[in-house]
Design goal:
The chain has about 150 residues and is an alpha+beta fold. Helices cover about 50% and strands about 20% of the residues. It has a three-stranded mixed beta sheet with strand order 1-2-3. A two-stranded antiparallel sheet has the order 4-5.
Length: about 150
């Protein structure tokens, strides 16, 4: 299964913020949207970084209350895994696990087209496995009734 199936199911909306946005504004937006990460971009196309809950927590530990006056560019993670719509879900899950990334931007031709979380991938894999189990169960029942 490919990443495009996840984007079709969840939609391609991505919450973004400017690199000049205050970290506190981003944190409030994350709370309001009930999300774990915001993509940092100047033009909603080219990804410059990501701010996650982890970045904010580490920022609080490292900078204390100075964090409240910091901008996204000061705190964002600048190196992160990305994927395309054509990437295999199992491969992206492996990369996310290896890199300890819970969010991955989906990029096509240098443009942001979506964001997936590890939760999105796990949900998709569980649904895929349930479908496979149901098909096998139906096959076994049909084979017994012959």
């Amino acid at each position: 299964m490919k990443m495009e199936s996840i984007l079709k199911a969840k939609g391609a909306q991505v919450i973004t913020a400017s690199p000049h946005a205050k970290v506190t504004t981003i944190a409030h937006r994350m709370k309001h949207e009930r999300i774990g990460a915001v993509v940092i971009t100047e033009d909603d196309k080219a990804v410059q970084g990501i701010i996650s809950e982890r970045d904010i927590l580490y920022g609080l530990v490292n900078h204390g209350t100075d964090l409240f006056d910091m901008r996204a560019a000061d705190l964002m993670s600048r190196e992160w895994p990305t994927c395309t719509r054509k990437d295999n879900i199992k491969h992206v899950m492996a990369v996310m696990t290896q890199r300890r990334a819970r969010h991955v931007p989906v990029i096509e031709d240098g443009t942001l087209v979506g964001l997936v979380s590890i939760g999105d991938l796990v949900k998709s894999r569980v649904e895929e496995m349930e479908t496979e189990a149901n098909v096998l169960r139906d096959y076994a029942i049909a084979a017994r009734s012959r």
